[in-house]
Specification:
130 residues, alpha/beta, globular
Amino acid sequence: MKASKLVEILNGEVFTETTFDPDKELNCAFSCDLMSDALMLLRNVDEGFSEIGILVTGLVTVQGVRTAEMLDLPAILLVRGKKPNAMVIEEAKRANIMMIGTKYTMFSANGKMYEHGIQGISEYENAQNI
């Protein structure tokens, strides 16, 4: 789905206006608050995931941005109404990563995304193996 649609269905707030691409296709997501889990699990996923993937987290630190950057993910979705500070926003802009926020919990945000066709790692990998 287009990033603009993601913002719409999640009643989202765009924190990085200069890097936000409303037409960017975001079709996969991975959710966690432990960046070590993201690095461990996503490093073995087909690189196509990185082109269309979203890191969903409640972590509003530079470490979250650096994790998304290392994994070449184009977007971070911050859940539970978390707001990044200026330094985190600037780091996301520097890394050319879209940062979006929602008031939904991680569970609810994931459900809404799944309901609208966003795939998780399992579905993405199964589709690649067909």
